[in-house]
Amino acid sequence: MILALGDMARHMSTQLLLLLVYGALCAALPTTPPGKPHPLSVCIDAKHHKEKPGPEDNLHGQCSPWKKNSCCTSNTSQEAHKDVSYLYSFNWNHCGEMTPSCKRHFIQDTCLYECSPNLGPWIRQVNQSWRKERFLDVPLCKEDCQRWWEDCRTSFTCKSNWHKGWNWTSGYNQCPIGAACHPFHFYFPTPAALCEEIWSHSYKVSNYSRGSGRCIQMWFDPAQGNPNEEVARLYAQAMSGAGHPGAWPFLLSLALALLWLLS
After folding, report:
1. Rounded-to-integer distance, Cα 119 and Cα 133, Å
2. 23-37, 45-59, 173-187: least confidently modelled range
3. Total Cβ atoms within 10 A of residue 26
4. Buried b (16+ CB within 10 A) or exposed e, 165-174
5. Of 24-33, 72-81, 116-125, the least confident
6. 206: Cα separation from own chain's centroid
7. 123 pairs with which residues across the strands?
8. 3-state secondary structure of 128
């Protein structure tokens, strides 16, 4: 009788451990919320973005790397290259003429924002009149940020956060009253200050380099493929299944205990 009770207790303990292991495994495995698109190929819900990414054969200029799979249309890519476009009526030359080398980075930044379908892991909900979603803390490759900062040092601006605080009475952005125009390095003393602050932390400067597969490249050669696809996959996995690293030591201890009981 005592032996039978002992066997029963062992059996119940084994079943309990199996349930615990199963529950922990379910919590640790990657999941995608019902009705949500796959984060590796998705467009944000914003003013000019397509509902779903797809081919766009006629993307213009610096937006052309996304031809095979894009969240922007040909018209959007055309407007992204204008000084004051219908996209956001934003004037790059609010403190005099921006140098071409500096402006090229802002065009590339606009193309990445409008066209890339590989920023899903960094999409966040927002309550703004012109968009319902945004990107936050996209890990920008350090060289892209460094070059952006270096090429804009001789251009001028009057603000460190370009998302808000402008004077829009003329229909496009002008410096607010009392804001003085200074070289970029006055408002952005470091590359990180520029890349992280200018668009309210849309970017976070990465410690990784271009080609590492660990950071988003603002510039890439489409003939070599889109390197940001691999980066999105890596971060999506880390934010889902691998995003619960504390579960694995617990699973290991449970498995060892289960093996001991069954032996």
Report:
1. 12
2. 23-37
3. 10
4. ebeeeeebbb
5. 24-33
6. 12
7. 135
8. strand
The alpha carbon of residue 210 and the mean position of all alpha carbons in its chain are separated, in whole angstroms, by 16
Which is nearest to 106 in space by CA: 154, 64, 144, 54?
Answer: 144
The whole-angstrom separation of Cα 249 and Cα 207 is 28
Which residues neighbour 77 within 8 Å (Cβ) at sequence distance 6 or greater?
Answer: 56, 58, 59, 60, 61, 63, 64, 111, 114, 115
DSSP string computed for 179-197: PPPEEHHHH-SSHHHHHHH
- CA distances to 103, 146, 158, 187, 189 from 153, rounded to whole Å, are 12, 11, 13, 10, 9
Q: What is the mean pLDDT of residues 147-158?
A: 97
Q: What token pair was written down for 194?
A: 């520029």
For 178, how many CA atoms within 13 A lie in the half-sphere containing its CB? 1
Q: Are 40 and 232 in contact (CB under 8 A)?
A: yes
Phi/psi for 204 (5° steps) reads -130, 120
Per the structure block, which two tokens stand in for 5? 């009770």
For residue range 189-245, list pLDDT tens digits in order. 999 999 999 999 999 999 999 999 999 999 999 999 999 999 999 999 888 754 444
